Amino acid sequence: MAYTNAQRRQHIMELQKYLYAISLNNSKIPQIIPDGVYGKETSIAVRAFQREYGLPESGNTDPATWNKIVRVYRSYLDAAPAAYNVFPSAKYIVKDGDKGQLVYIIQTMLNDIGDHYENAPCVEICGDYNNATTDAIKQFQKRVGLPQSGKVDSGTWNMLVHCCEHIDRTLQ
Question: Quick one: DSSP state of residue 145?
Fold first, then answer.
């Protein structure tokens, strides 16, 4: 059976997806957008991979290169979970009116705490730092002995994280 153009494109796309994932973990590998075309960008990424991992630099995906790409990709999948630091800095403050991923995480932590402690309120997880979130943070701050500003600074953030980690440990 002949190797069709569609199959070739699919294999190139798989290679590009692996290289893209590897580039997220190794900045020496240029990021490429998987498109199924083995063009200049793919060749450059393969050459960088070969250089980084001690393979002959051809820019072509020979069996040794393919096998190494697959091994490196799978090593990231099999590794211990990576920490995800989302709080920008020690001086950063999240407050009423803020929106986004960090607010979603804060609201999720508040709900995790609220699910395990009767005197802790749950809030809508909406990504908007609204009055309900401000009030829940004030109550949390009061319980842990922090000034009740209703804002999440690094101290409040750290207490939220530690409280959620404590809950996780007790559930194991």
Answer: T
Within its chain, how far is the Cα of 27 from the centroid? Answer: 16
**Tokens standing for residue 143:** 């319980």
Tell me phi and psi for residue 152, to 5 degrees: -105, 105
**Chain Cα centroid distance, residue 69:** 21
* Residue 120: DSSP 8-state: S
CB atoms within 10 A of CB 142: 11
Alpha-carbon distances, residue 31 vs 8, 28, 76 (angstroms) = 21, 9, 16
Give 150's DSSP letter.
Answer: S
Flag whether the pTM goes above 0.90. no
> Can you read off the two tokens belonging to residue 121?
């309120």
Q: Rounded mean pLDDT of the chain?
A: 94
Task: Find out whether 61 and 15 touch, Cβ atoms under 8 Å.
Answer: yes
The count of other CB atoms within 10 Å of the CB of residue 18 is: 19
Give pLDDT tens digits for 134-149.
999 999 999 999 999 9
Cα–Cα distance measured from residue 57 to residue 36, given in angstroms and rounded to the nearest whole number: 21
Q: Rounded to whole angstroms, what are the CA distances from 69 to 12, 26, 74? A: 13, 12, 9
